[in-house]
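Assess the record.
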Amino acid sequence: MQIEDKKLRAKLIEGLEQFVTDERKERLLSVLDNRTRHVTVVLEDLYQTQNISAVMRSCECYGIQDAYIVENRNTFEIHKDISMGADKWLTLHHYPHSEHNVKRCIDDLHAHGYTVIATLPDEKRTTIMDLPVERKTAFLFGTELTGLSEEAVRYADGAALIPMYGFTESFNISNSAAIILSHFSERLRHSEVDWKLTPDEREELYFSWLQKSIRNSESLIRHLSSDIAGDGKILP
């Protein structure tokens, strides 16, 4: 449940915190301290649920909050045994099948200040080590067999590759995402870039995560909201 009224949301957070342990609260806040929207991923039409789920897990482990999902021939699905619930803590942006949905996704990323980088196995491309961490970056990954669509490559701002020194031409998509996110996020966290969430983003996510940590949270929020409307106080 989302609450746009910031004052009400703050009061509801105060109320919800009474229903989680101190250890759980500290854990949520600790993870929030390491969350970022400075880097994100775009998955274009992946069809293997194990790959999708592995990328979700990598995003969550490396503190990447958002993932953008573009669907065309294939429907987005999570393999719960592989994701291990990682998708529960992420913000997923869906672009279901429609004409030029890849361009719409990239346009939205541009509107949020992202530079969109296509991941392509081409020795003439820039390596991931050469990408500047100062810019908000969205990494674009294509389907397992054919890679990125021509439209995705055309509208991306650039392309990069992972250096490889063996006979094999490319990594599995989930391995590629894990390597890129690990490398880029570590460079980012050791830079002087302000990569953390804004106070409002942090509060909004904290409210969402508290709800996911409490059974029947929607019913509880309705009860708390009623109490707040009645006398402005939070009742246990």
